Amino acid sequence: MGDATSPANALAVGDVIDVDGNVEFDALMEVNSAIAIEKEIAADTIGTLFAATQIHFLAFVEPCTLELVDLLSHYYEGIRKSAIDSLLEIVRTFYDLSDHEDWVPGANAVSEADLGSYNALLIVLR
């Protein structure tokens, strides 16, 4: 029986139907394709690209973020993980781009600069 992790291990129709004629849904849910792998790589690259190019990538952040959010419900776990990693990298990069103060132990938990950065992030993500 193929495990559908690569084209060489593709599932045949007989592999997903058991002796009684019932469909094995667990086997169908493990399907992976080259397109899914490409989406995973692309989703992983978006966050890295924004972190490297920073302000020069701002024009593309909103459409990329919307695509990454759409990928959060994908059936393939690798795509969901890469989308989450890139979304978190986008947040980290926005924080790096903001004029933030260095953290000081015992200081106020929220400063005006942090609120401004947070509000700017919310505006961009809308």
Task: Jot down its keywords.
126 residues; 2 domains; elongated; mainly alpha
Question: Strands, helices and their partners?
Answer:
Layout: H1 25-29, H2 34-53, H3 58-71, H4 77-97, H5 112-125
Helix pairs in contact: 2-4, 3-4
Structure description:
This protein has 126 residues and is mostly helical. The chain has two domains: 1-32, no CATH class; 34-125. The protein contains five helices and no strands. Helix 2 (34-53) packs parallel to helix 4. The mean pLDDT is 78.
Number of helices: 5
Instruction: Please tell me what the overall shape is.
Output: elongated
Roughly what is the average pLDDT, rounded to an integer? Answer: 78
- Integer tally of domains: 2
By oligomeric state, this entry counts as single chain
Task: State the secondary-structure class.
Answer: mainly alpha
- N-to-C SSE string, H for helix and E for strand: HHHHH
Terminal Cα span:
46 Å
What value does the Rg take, in angstroms? 21 Å
Estimated helix fraction: 55-70%
Q: In percent, how much strand structure appears in the residues?
A: under 5%
Low-confidence stretches: none
For the secondary structure, the number of strands is 0
Biggest sheet, open or closed, and with what strands and sense? Answer: none
